[in-house]
Amino acid sequence: MIPSTLDLTTNYVLIFISGFLSFVHCYGMCGVFPASVSKLSEENNMKNIIYLFLYNLGRILSYVFLGFLVSFGSIKFGAFISNIKYISGIFSVAIAILMAFIGLKLIFGKAIGSIGFLNPLYEGIIYIINVLSSTKSIFSPFLIGVFNGFLPCPMVYGFLLLAALSKSQIQGILIMFSFGLGTMFTMFSFGFLSKYLIKLKHQAVYKLIGVILIYFSYESIARVYMSIYNCR
């Protein structure tokens, strides 16, 4: 079953909304980074806008690269196992179940925090960002955004799994671009309002994003089922 253009557009809109709604999570996990970028602008409003744009550009490009990477890897692995009956479908269902698992963790409020085995990667990236945050260069905001995009994040992983299921590099790129674009307004706002924002907690937002991930998981499993059913 090939998704129609309307279905794909609807999905991208849902992904964009998920990115926008992730503002609570983004503030708690990454709010310090746009705040650091704003400090580099030395309270010059025009420079602040340019720096925050460069920061968000770097962050979204990292998401796009990861979307391309996982969809490319999924396609190559899928081609490798395509000759083994049902294995490709099982692979897709396994990814969909993992995506649903992340969605359930979001719904029950257990997805916020570090991912143990990725802590060395997290600490290494944080160290690089800290160095860049104290370097007054036009390239620093962009590079902070690039490295920010590679930080371990359960919410980002949920949509990377969706990109892996897309079986298309273009769709993988568009999925992560839509998510990154959805978070852009939020990260811009943190840069400008970092002095005034207090810690936000709103579990309903996590639950809604979790439901959207579970919807995509269900859609992916249903697609596999229909392809097997049609082959009978």
Quick recap:
This protein has 232 residues and is mostly helical. It has helices at 5-21, 23-30, 32-40, 45-81, 87-107, 119-133, 140-149, 154-165, 169-193, 203-230.
What descriptive keywords fit this protein?
232 residues; mainly alpha; single chain; 10 helices
Map the helices and strands.
Layout: H1 5-21, H2 23-30, H3 32-40, H4 45-81, H5 87-107, H6 119-133, H7 140-149, H8 154-165, H9 169-193, H10 203-230
Helix pairs in contact: 1-9, 1-10, 2-9, 3-4, 3-7, 3-9, 4-7, 4-8, 4-9, 5-8, 5-10, 6-7, 8-9, 8-10
Number of helices: 10
Given as residue ranges, the uncertain stretches (5+ residues, pLDDT < 50) are 1-6, 197-201
SSE sequence, one letter per element = HHHHHHHHHH
Q: Label the structural class.
A: mainly alpha
Mean pLDDT figure: 76
Which overall shape is indicated by the principal axes computed on the Cα atoms? Answer: elongated
Question: Mind telling me the C-alpha Rg?
Answer: 19 Å
Beta strand count? 0
User: How far apart are the first and last residues' alpha carbons, in Å?
Assistant: 14 Å
Roughly what percent helix? over 70%
Please indicate the percent range of residues in DSSP E strands (runs of 2 or more).
Answer: under 5%
Overall tally of structural domains: 1
Quaternary state reads single chain
Largest sheet: none
